[in-house]
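During the reporting period the student researcher (J.K.) took over the structure-prediction task from the postdoctoral fellow and processed the backlog of single-chain submissions. One of the processed entries is reproduced below for the supervisory committee.
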Amino acid sequence: MVHQRVRLTLHIIGSFLKYLALIYILPLAAALYYGENWRVFLYSLLLTLAIGLFLEFGLKTTKEIERADGFTIVSFSWLLIPLLGTAPYIFLGWNFLDAFFEAMSGFTTTGATILENVEVQYKSALLWRSLTQWLGGMGVIALFIAILPKLGVGGSQLFEREFPGPMPERLRPRIRATARILWGIYVAFTVVELLLLYFLAKLPLFDSTCLSLCTLPTGGFTPTTASIGAYANPLAEYIIMVFMFLAGTNFIIHYQVLKRNFKIIKDEEFRLYLLLLVAATSLLILSQGLGSWRYGLFQALSMMTTTGFTTCDFGSWHSGARMVLLALMFIGGCGGSTGGAIKVVRTLTLLKHSMVMMRRAISPKAVIPVKYNRKPLPCGIIRDITSFLFLYILVAIVASTMLSFLGLDLETSISAVVASLGNVGPGLGGVGPASNYAWLPAAGKVILIICMWLGRLELFTVFMIFLPRFWKS
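J.K. obtained the following structure tokens:
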């Protein structure tokens, strides 16, 4: 049974890698255009293609994808794809750990970087860096589900394991159609943002492309060391703010609005999302002064959607303002968005559950269901969310403690873990917006790589593969 599961997992991952190799054509073309070392991407393409073909055709199997297989395929895909994504960086002379950190940060849309001076890098390498985030935002596997008919019914097992946040209602009876719809909206938003940044905000075409590729996945990589603040362009900031907000919103809402179903905007999660943004922005403006309203709004959106773009050094802000940003990093965007962290829908559900428990304390015999959008929630969903929150906090505490024992101060340890586990990017202290992750000890980088992996797949998918009973099933 274990042999069959491993064989199927590697066979499916081989199919993914085969198509992933084609993405290298884009940075390869950019390298040729800018007169850079194009062989880096040619070698990366050939290496990824060769490994993909070997796994796909060397490990053929007739086994169908079952529920348990979904955990192994998704977990190992999100390890092996970033691992192969290190190829361009290694061919450029980076050490393996830094290359893996940057690749994992890219594909998981974390945005934490080890680059101390971004502008000196090849433009083709920066484009590849942005592409990793764009592919990871809506999900690499969701993309392959949309284009590969061979996954069939088993694709639903992969989609449920990868899709960020609680599984939404299906937009169509077939999961492949759902993946296509979500990716279609995602691509459309990316193109519109690119056009607005280039034609309206007058940013360079290359920068507009990279920023658009990193906004919709709520990634945070930029072709500049100083992030969005390097452009000193208020119009570009407003455009990016709009698309960060859209990226942090449940994509089911976008689909329903496009169908002119505007009642969906009354969704309770969406309303709490708006309320939290307004409250956080107000607190940031109050702490920093009315003149900082644009900075406050931008950073509130960036942190809550887990994008990680910055327009200023918020690490030097008032301690109360930093606590607000840290809280937003914990909460994250809406379920079904490209944002990371705990998600607004889980926060809302637990708030409602707490209110019901208090009412039951007064009237023990009363039957009071927890409702979401006026519909009772099954007890199983509440148990799942409670378990997720417990594991999330436990992982954050353990990882922060380990970083502290490596010599990092408390603020840096906690914020680095929260930023990595929530796929945010910049933290506070030594990993704030004015710094980077290059100086961390090797063990610290490994811990944060694991946090990025766990955070992107929302803990359970990864933890399952480490249970002995899972492999006996």
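The committee noted the following: The mean pLDDT is 88.
J.K. will present the remaining backlog at the next meeting.
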